[in-house]
Design a protein that fits this description.
- The chain is built from 11 helices and 7 strands.
- The protein is α/β, with parallel strands linked by helices.
- Helix 1 (21-28) crosses helix 10 and helix 6 (106-116) packs across helix 10.
Length: 244
């Protein structure tokens, strides 16, 4: 292992080839954790594309296992959530047995983060529209959560990174206020948001924890590698390195 990766190496498989969340994660991770990124090429964000894409992860997991990484993280919530909670669990178990490396997905990461924060009832927001949002909600219901809403924002898949933090703040706040008496937290689905700067603001204004995929990813990578270095500015989960 290279000296610069003395705390461990994670292999991340990104579903898209757009910039953003990978740079955010690397800046957020503590020194000494190495990252090997590989990429698929999801372009439209359509259900059919996610259905086809799931089989493309495995060759990349095999490549990362050959590199002796300590942990593999195939990213992208939609492809795995379409399998359902149980279907995803079976697939992860198969991969771990075949390649002898720990594997966690975006969905399992978000479930673990929600549980760590003691959240059972939450309001979700995504940058998808239509029936697929109900699929996302059902994934969490199968895992034992009460999803009060999964509200999509109408934006082209290629333009997600251009959404302003203020627009996303307003969208999330509007969804939350409909359920403020019941909701214990807020969940943002998808790594395409470029809105890390509003996580603390949402938590402060609305009084509940916010799960954003990038800080949640950093949090779990640390726990999996037996590292515990809090990072402030991106919500309670990571700022306090809540036990998993």
């Amino acid at each position: 292992m290279a000296f610069t990766s003395w705390r461990g190496v994670v292999g991340c498989i990104k579903p898209t080839m757009r910039p953003g969340s990978m740079e955010e994660l690397i800046r957020m991770l503590p020194d000494g954790i190495g990252v090997i990124p590989l990429f698929l090429d999801v372009q439209k964000g359509a259900k059919e594309e996610f259905d086809r894409g799931i089989r493309l992860y495995e060759p990349l997991i095999a490549r990362l296992a050959e590199k002796k990484v300590d942990l593999v993280h195939p990213e992208g919530a939609p492809p795995f959530m379409l399998l359902g909670h149980e279907g995803e669990a079976r697939l992860i178990k198969t991969w771990e047995k075949t390649y002898q490396v720990p594997v966690f997905t975006s969905g399992t990461n978000h479930i673990r983060a929600l549980k760590a924060l003691g959240i059972k009832r939450f309001v979700g927001a995504s940058y998808f529209t239509g029936k697929i949002n109900e699929t996302f909600a059902n994934y969490f219901r199968e895992a034992g959560f009460d999803v009060l809403a999964m509200d999509g924002i109408d934006v082209a898949f290629d333009d997600v990174g251009s959404l302003s933090s203020e627009v996303v703040y307003a969208h999330v706040k509007k969804a939350f206020l409909k359920h403020r008496k019941e909701a214990q937290g807020i969940y943002l689905l998808g790594s395409g948001w470029r809105v890390l700067n509003i996580i603390d603001t949402l938590e402060q204004d609305l009084g509940v924890p916010v799960i954003h995929p990038v800080p949640a990813r950093c949090w779990e990578i640390q726990h999996r590698l037996s590292v515990r270095q809090p990072v402030k500015g991106y919500g309670q989960l990571l700022a306090e390195m809540i036990p998993g």
